[in-house]
Amino acid sequence: MRIASVFLALIFSANTALADSKAPEYSEDPFGDFALSDESLILNIDFHPAGHGEVGVLLASSMIDKYSTHIGGLIDFTYNFSDGEVGVSLLDTIAVNVSAGYAAGSLTSIVTSPQGIIGNKVDKCIEDPSTCPGKDVTPYVPDYKQVTWMASVSAIWAPLYGKINVVSEYDVNLQFYGLFGAGVNGTKEVTATVVGYDVDPRGYTLGSGDPGVMPHLTFGGGLKVFIMDWIALRAEVRGLLNFDKFDFKYRPNANATSTAAMGTYDELYAPGYVFANVGLNFLVF
User: Fold this and answer.
1) Which of 56, 182, 245, 251 gives the lowest tally of CB atoms within 10 Å of its CB?
2) 81: closest CA among 92, 66, 65?
């Protein structure tokens, strides 16, 4: 009986304490970043680009290589337009970009290996010199020219800029952008000449043909991750679509005089190159 009385007293005391205590309050924003209370994709924009100029310094490397691989550099300047009004408008998401860069190309194993394009032509040339007039074993295939330099003017559209809601626990500002433009680029064609295996283990030597210039379209997209208000990490993929001519009906090993027929049936085609660019972006004004 005494135990029951003590138990009832404890229950009564606990109920009295709960009644006197203040009920907990629900917080819609427990972390203070508006992630739960704000349904907007962009929470805030700390480093607004509108009306500012930026300079990018990027390392460039080609992707999806076929006959040649490239590595080089790119520098560009971007001016972000602004309508002068407070807030974000469509004009605030548009910019103009001017870029220039260089590239050093090297042939892939598809071309240079003993079983590659040149290796096969060397073996045929040694067996039958009539198949390679002047001992020329340069691959005659489309998409063979290498890029040496490029210059472009592009329009940039950056619809997403600021602190993205999906990663709101990290205090970072991101910018996703796409670009489209046009320009020109330099080209070169690597030549190959048979010298024999006693002179070179490969049986041939490489040279450089006449340089050329071709127009191109450029397109792609990228991401900036702002470290501070004046510097950002940057990564992008940028494509070059050239306009060139090639004689798809020419057969270089058909006979000894076929070289004279090159270019008779030139057709317009569009060789393409894809570059991955990574580097830094600096706010200059």
Assistant:
1) 251
2) 92
